[in-house]
Amino acid sequence: MADVISFRGTVEWSGENPGISLKDTPDGPFVAAASFFRIMLSPHGRGHALMLMMSPQDANPPAERGNFCFTDNEKLARYLASDFVSYFGAWKDTPGLKNMIYRPLDSVAASGDPGSTYSETVKAAEFTVTLEWKRLGKAFCFALPPDKSATGKHWMPSTFVPCAEASITVNGRALPGKPAPREMAGHKITTAFLAFSETWIRA
Fold it and tell me: Residue 192 in contact with residue 19, Cβ under 8 Å?
């Protein structure tokens, strides 16, 4: 019988969490970021959340350049923001996350093929936001131990699909910036990626 890989701890959520974080220059600050969640299991049930920062470094931008969370489960979204997203590299300590405005979403739809081009489109009142990932690479599966995870408290088994090109479009307008190079589990990827079968287990 094959050995069983078992993660000790409490499963806190499981689902999908693709993201796009954009910079004007590879060593500069993030100028836009989007983190999308499709959650199947959590202490607050199922739900979707799109956390969108059009002005990460601005605490009170105008609405057309605002920082929003569009969700169909606000309790879940606030939990994800406070306990997880606040530790993510592009989001940590940003005024945009701290003052994010929560709005109900009207619809969410995925399209495309993770083997080539993939997108998520969220509609909420006057906003239509499309996240698009292009030039997708070969998927890989890994499990970060707690000391290597963003929170420092969780195991994180996940399947990632690297992406060379990505965009965030709000009401037909593409936000500035491009994905920047990064490394994940020994793979050279960028700050735009698909993350499927992602589970966060408190150690």
Answer: yes
pLDDT for 2 equals: 66
Pick the closest to residue 69 from 82, 58, 57 (CA basis): 82
Q: How far apart are CA 191 and CA 10, in angstroms?
A: 28
71-101 b/e (C-beta count within 10 Å ≥ 16 → b) = bbbeebbbbbbebbbbbbebbeebbbbeebe
Any idea what DSSP says for residue 176? S
Our measurement of the distance from residue 101's CA atom to the centroid of its chain's CA atoms, rounded to an integer in Å, reads: 17
Tokens 């969370």: give the residue: 69
DSSP 96-137: HHHTPEEEE-SEEEEEEETTTEEEEEEEETTEEEEEEEEEE-
Mean pLDDT by runs of 10 across the 203 residues of the chain is: 83 98 95 98 98 94 94 98 96 94 98 96 97 97 95 97 97 97 94 97 96
Provide the token pair at 28. Answer: 């500069």
Phi, psi of 95 (to 5 degrees): -60, -35
Judge whether 150 and 89 are in contact, CB under 8 Å.
Answer: yes
Q: Are 23 and 191 in contact (CB under 8 A)?
A: yes
At 178, which helix (H) or strand (E)? strand 178-179
CB 131 within 8 A of CB 118: no
